[in-house]
Amino acid sequence: MRRLLGLAIVWFMAMSMSATIVSAQTGDGARPPATAGGVRIEIDSGGVIELDAADLETYRTEFADGQLQDIELHQPRPVVRGVHFRMVYATVIDGTTYYYGLGTFEDPATDTKRAGWVLGVETAAAAAAAETTGRYDFTAVLVDNQTGDHVSFRLLFDAAPPTCGAGGDTTPGVQQRTFTTSSGVERTYLLNMPSSYVDGTPSDVVFNFHGLGSNAAQQNVYAGFTPLAERDGVIQVAPDGLPIFGNTRGWSLATAGTNVDVDFVYELIDELHADYCLGDFFAAGMSMGGGMTSVLACRADSPFQAFGPVTLVLHNANCANAPARPIVEFHGTADGVVPIGPIPGIMQQWADHNDCAAGPIDQAIDATVTLHAWTGCAAPTSWYEVEGGGHAWPGALGGGGVSATEIIWDLFFATP
Q1: Alpha-carbon distance 112 to 105, whole Å?
Q2: Which fold has domain 173-414?
Q3: Are 166 and 276 in contact (CB under 8 A)?
Q4: Distances (CA, A) of 406 to 328, 338, 387, 412
Q5: Which of 178-187, 209-218, 355-364 has the highest mean pLDDT?
């Protein structure tokens, strides 16, 4: 089983124990919104970093526009003692590294949760020390979205595998779950646990996204991953989308900027990390769920390792910063919902993204199915064309022909 190496929090101090956050404008300890008066961070070593309102607004605008380089140092996102956050971008100014992300902080003393944006600071001295020690030392501030209050904390990261979570319900089979996001929205999802799961032993996770108008329960049956997941000890997660047309559930397909569904998935992953011992993450989906799968492939900070969109795949300029992505897509020539017309071009974009050297090379799988695959790629890249096929998951519900389920599974667990 492959493990995604990342950085795990090994030590944590909160509520100004290691840094003092005051208003740079008043200097009196008041806590206005950051954009009103700026932030002053006093570091244990004696250094002081001050950001005024203009600085903060500039950083927020640049980060939101995705102009700065993504850092993958913090994969997977750590979850320890109520701190949930993901650093997304970083920039260096005069030797000091500024990190920006989103997060929540649960204060055990007051039993309250704060959610907002996080500004982290790593001094040049700390960065230099990290080169030899492998430990990354941050002072950070979380600015509450609702009140503007500042919560400061210090984080030490070690370059080591993530610590396994524990305490989650390990009952085999499908569990109906609810999850409240940091923005207060209640979301639902299915968790499907394999009978072989053991606390302390990492299990990989497959997310399975339904199409427009469907739901998690239907997609869990339709894709048919369960026998393979039970055989291989893989956890399945089938989220429900939000109503987007009346009561019709679907997904936001924004590949850049704020995306409520991406935030939900990332926060849910944080929650699962806290409760279970997890390995790698993979994403598949049907129709609009394939679009959601593509969105996760496009995001440079995505925790997912490989992608299996069915009957809909996306790629655009916003995907450029993402690393090479193993991906396979399936499409019918008679699909009346998502016509096949643009699919070859989109898959060529993924081939270019993955630095493929040649292709596609066409191979007839049977009388109705043609595999289009590229070679010399940084990550496997292919799609299956089903002659006369409609808007359907190939091989679903006992149907004949090529099995999208088995091919996607092979991509996920045969890719080195």
Answers
A1: 8
A2: Rossmann fold (3.40.50)
A3: yes
A4: 12, 23, 19, 10
A5: 209-218
What integer pLDDT is reported at residue 250 of this predicted model? 96
Cβ distance 133 to 240 under 8 Å?
A: no
pLDDT over threshold 60, residue 58: no
**Is pLDDT above 90 for 17?**
no
- Helix 288-298 vs helix 260-275: angle between axes, to the nearest 10 degrees? 80
DSSP string, 366-378: SSSEEEEEEES-S
Residues in a beta bridge with 191 = 175, 237
CA distances from 295 to 134, 258, 319, 325 (A): 32, 12, 8, 12
- Return the domain boundaries, the chain: 6-160, 173-414
Question: Secondary structure of 9-71 in the HEC alphabet?
Answer: EEEEEECCCCEEEECCCCCCCCCCCHHHHCEEEEECCCCEEEECHHHHHHHHHHHHCCCCCEC
Higher pLDDT, 139 or 225: 225
SS3 101: strand
Which ranges in 245-366 belong to alpha helices (H)?
Answer: 260-275, 288-298, 343-353
**Distance (Å, whole) CA 403 – CA 394:** 6
- Which stretch of 27-31, 209-213, 306-310 has the lowest confidence by average pLDDT? 27-31
What separation in angstroms does the CA of 1 have from each of 105, 201, 232, 233? 32, 10, 10, 10
Q: What is the pTM of this model?
A: 0.65
Taking 3-state DSSP, the helix, strand and coil percentages for the chain, each rounded to the nearest 5, stand at 25, 40, 40
Contact 314, 298 (CB under 8 A): yes
